[in-house]
Amino acid sequence: VHQSKMDFFCKLGYGKQDICRVLENLGQEALEDDVLKELIRMGSKPQALENQAQPSQLKLVARGSCSPAPGPKWLGEDESDPSDSLRPIVIDGSNVAMSHGNKEVFSCWGIQLAVDWFRERGHTYIKVFVPLWRKEPPRQESPIADQHILEELEKQSILVYTPSRKVKGKRVVCYDDRYIVKVAYERDGVIVSNDHYRDLQNENPEWKWFIEQRLLMYSFVSNRFMPPDDPLGRHGPTLSNFLSKKPVLPEKKWQPCPYGKKCTYGNKCKFYHPERQHQAQLSVADELRAKTKVPLALGREEERSQCSP
Fold this sequence. Notes:
By secondary structure, this protein is an alpha/beta fold. The chain has twelve helices and eleven strands. It has three domains: 1-42; 82-243, Rossmann fold (3-Layer(aba) Sandwich), CATH 3.40.50; 251-286, no CATH class. Strands 5-3-1-8-9 form a five-stranded parallel β-sheet, with helices on both faces. α1 (2-12) crosses α2 (16-26), α2 crosses α3 and α5 (93-100) crosses α6 (108-121). Belongs to the ZC3H12 family. GO terms for molecular function: hydrolase activity; mRNA binding; RNA endonuclease activity; zinc ion binding. Residues 251-276 form the C3H1-type domain.
């Protein structure tokens, strides 16, 4: 009787310890209803109800999907944003500002135009390097225009000042070009400057290749920042492929042959022949040789068939 009651209440989901405690208090011959009331009064709950009371860790999945919805992502975690396919941008602030100011004024507005151009394309990692002494009040020998733009870009964590100090009245300036090339090389990005950094190319052979392949030159046309559409020349990649980590190769388009069926170049012709889709593009001499070989081969087979017993 004890075992049968134990099995019955265990099937209902109650724990064995609670069942034994109730049976000891009420006796082995107690009715099932009394035992159930005593279990309820003690506050014992079936395991199924306890699991329902606990917050479920399972998540509903939409019909047709194979995996649950992604959870919240933490800061610094990689996300599938289109900006992830774009290369980091490192701007030579002094070169851009002096170019916009016609090499007479350090124009901070030129830096803002360059930053806005890359922002509109979707680049998220943009760094501008400027010497720290440009933060000082402008002088007659080094005029600065729109200096407040440097403060705004610094607040946005875009502008980085390269260190400089004064020793016995003389300014000691660190070489900002080395900062620019080093950061761009480590981030596998693009350098925006009209400087060729020849001294740094001779200093490090790895930097030499990187500067030759990742230097993006530019021009200012009526306060408009304009990089070239072919940064590495006419036969190089397009600007969009140059700025992206995964370049998209254009589909090869065949130009039809201007001579059409009268073309005598055969397989040496570089143009497209729609009539030669299902046959080898042989030259005229090769076609004549192939045609003369076919009847000769047929005649030899007939001779062999006649000579064979």
